[in-house]
TrEMBL record:
SUPFAM superfamilies: ATPase domain of HSP90 chaperone/DNA topoisomerase II/histidine kinase. One of its GO terms (molecular function) is ATP binding. Pfam families: HATPase_c_2 (PF13581). This is ATP-binding protein. Gene3D superfamilies: Histidine kinase-like ATPase, C-terminal domain (3.30.565.10). Residues 13-134 form the Histidine kinase/HSP90-like ATPase domain. The lineage of its organism: Bacteria, Bacillati, Actinomycetota, Actinomycetes, Kitasatosporales. It comes from the Bacteria. CDD domains: HATPase_RsbW-like. InterPro entries: Anti-sigma-factor_SerPK, HATPase_C_sf, HATPase_dom. Keywords: ATP-binding, Kinase, Nucleotide-binding, Serine/threonine-protein kinase, Transferase.
């Protein structure tokens, strides 16, 4: 799929745990193809962010969203990662406590985004939402 941007791709995955490593591999392949060295911090951060967002979609949205759509786009110096599902639930980063055994994923995502000077945006759709993470793209 081409959106008229510098670089763009999208793929659909089943809303099941096996989708997480599949997405990480696909994203790593696209980033390498687009010129981002595998050892670059952005690649590590993006794969971690994707893991957290897709895991969230699998755990919380799979009941009403049998598929997850992952979009990766580079445009005007920014890398956009979108994870779309059909659930209307808008994720909220929970306050971390020492006893929590889950719920830290969005806090990790927020920390990476803040450290890189990026943004998080939730786009509502009549049939669900897309959670966008926008990070600076370092490759000219």
């Amino acid at each position: 799929m081409t959106l008229g941007y510098d670089r763009s791709c999208w793929f659909t995955l089943p809303a099941e745990p096996a989708a997480v490593p599949q997405a990480r591999r696909a994203l790593a392949d696209h980033l390498a193809y687009w010129g981002l060295p595998q050892s670059h911090d952005l690649g590590y951060g993006l794969r971690l962010i994707a893991s957290e967002l897709i895991t969230n979609a699998v755990e919380h949205a799979a009941v009403v969203s049998p598929e997850i759509v992952v979009t990766l786009t580079v445009h005007d110096g920014w890398l956009w990662l979108g994870v779309r599902d059909r659930h209307p639930y808008r994720p909220v980063a929970l306050l971390e406590t020492v006893d929590d055994t889950s719920g830290r994923g969005l806090l990790i995502v927020r920390q990476i985004v803040d450290e890189t000077g990026g943004q998080i945006h939730i786009e509502a759709h009549p049939d669900g939402k897309t959670l966008w993470v926008i990070l600076p793209w370092p490759v000219a």
